[in-house]
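User: Can you recover a sequence for this backbone? Please restate the input before giving your answer.

Assistant: Of course. Working from this structure:
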């Protein structure tokens, strides 16, 4: 229809919800009847929030309201055909918010051709057809959910959507994956480890996930031990493909088909090679790094996002002219990740330039958490750090000083707002 969509979690904290609406200024909010009362209250509390509230009732009848006034049934007299015309490949298609180091969330503006490029690449590269059954494990507020949804639909297959409580319970999730005969899973390594622990609790020789054919870990560092455990429990019949790519360049831009059993369980699995129409540049002092030399991972692709919505300065800082060509039209994205070329020119991840970390696959700028804690009146100083646990997962810890004693429950309540 030519519109741009912005998914918002219904449990988004009040202050972040207000920030998102003020920055995005949506023309309408679309929800089911069940969530309408909460959205009405939220809109009343936001000065100048004039978005229409649109939705579908229990009987399937469309409705709309503004300032609490319900309009006529929208479904009456509407045309049944598709909208005329199609969006241009460079037109905007979605806005997705991610953590920002300034304390404000950043909004990535995606374009049609970027989304289409990855979906078509994945379908073709792995030969997916109408038999594919993909699990939609990622929340719709993250761009990775788009490959869960659109790849199987493009192939003629099925999208399998678990209930929220199933996503959070490894035992239920494992049973659900088996029941729905899921064949393709895009999954964050930390969630994958929870599933593996559940599998390892099953009796030896028990049949596990008989329909599963592909596991695509993404969003966090994948360890050699993770791969060893998958191979041990799934008898080597599942293809494991490590994916890497920030939201700014649209879904994944590197992939690594893992064909050999890793020897070191603690070593991070390489990111691999760039996908079609993508180049991996590891830059050191504005030059291409040598084999084995550590530099910043930069991505060159015509299928990148448009940058940050309504933030030209932040966009200009991250999407820069390629120093190797000095061509103003040759734009690369600076990921902030550190990496190096392996002998075959595949890429290995080694760390970050800044304080960004991944928690459960979610990008978190530690400076944003610092600022949220410093906004609590009786906190004097605060520093948030990432702690790496022995199981490969990451947790956050905060060290702080007080002007006056602060109760931890009160701090948590304030941070939840």
């Amino acid at each position: 229809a030519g519109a741009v969509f912005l998914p918002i979690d219904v449990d988004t904290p009040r202050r972040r919800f207000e920030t998102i609406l003020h920055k995005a200024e949506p023309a309408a909010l679309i929800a089911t009847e069940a969530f309408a009362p909460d959205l009405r209250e939220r809109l009343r509390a936001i000065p100048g929030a004039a978005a229409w509230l649109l939705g579908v009732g229990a009987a399937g009848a469309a409705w709309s309201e503004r300032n609490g006034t319900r309009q006529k049934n929208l479904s009456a007299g509407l045309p049944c055909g598709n909208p005329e015309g199609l969006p241009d490949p460079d037109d905007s298609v979605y806005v997705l918010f991610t953590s920002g180091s300034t304390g404000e969330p950043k909004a990535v503006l995606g374009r049609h051709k970027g989304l289409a490029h990855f979906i078509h690449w994945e379908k073709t590269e792995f030969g997916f057809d109408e038999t594919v059954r993909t699990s939609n494990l990622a929340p719709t507020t993250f761009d990775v959910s788009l490959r869960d949804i659109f790849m199987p639909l493009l192939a003629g297959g099925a999208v399998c959507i678990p209930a929220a409580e199933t996503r959070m319970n490894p035992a239920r999730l494992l049973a659900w994956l088996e029941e729905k005969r899921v064949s393709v899973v895009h999954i964050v390594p930390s969630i994958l480890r929870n599933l593996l622990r559940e599998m390892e609790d099953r009796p030896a020789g028990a049949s596990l996930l008989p329909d599963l054919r592909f596991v695509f870990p993404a969003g966090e560092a994948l360890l050699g031990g993770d791969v060893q455990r998958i191979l041990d429990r799934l008898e080597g019949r599942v293809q494991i493909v490590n994916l890497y790519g920030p939201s700014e360049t649209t879904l994944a831009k590197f992939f690594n088909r893992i064909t050999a059993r890793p020897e070191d369980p603690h070593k991070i699995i390489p990111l691999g090679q760039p996908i079609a129409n993508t180049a991996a540049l590891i830059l050191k002092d504005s030059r291409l790094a040598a084999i084995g030399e550590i530099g910043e991972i930069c991505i060159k692709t015509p299928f990148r996002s448009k940058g940050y919505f309504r933030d030209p300065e932040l966009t200009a800082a991250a999407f820069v002219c390629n120093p190797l060509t000095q061509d103003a039209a040759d734009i690369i994205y600076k990921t902030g990740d550190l990496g190096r070329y392996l002998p075959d020119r595949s890429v290995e991840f080694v760390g970050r330039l800044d304080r960004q970390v991944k928690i459960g696959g979610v990008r978190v700028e530690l400076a944003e958490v610092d600022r949220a804690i410093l906004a609590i009146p009786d906190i004097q100083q605060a520093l948030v750090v990432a702690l790496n646990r022995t199981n490969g997962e990451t947790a956050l810890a905060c060290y702080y000083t007080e002007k006056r004693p602060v109760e931890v429950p009160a701090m948590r309540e304030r941070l939840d707002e």
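That completes the design. The mean pLDDT is 88.
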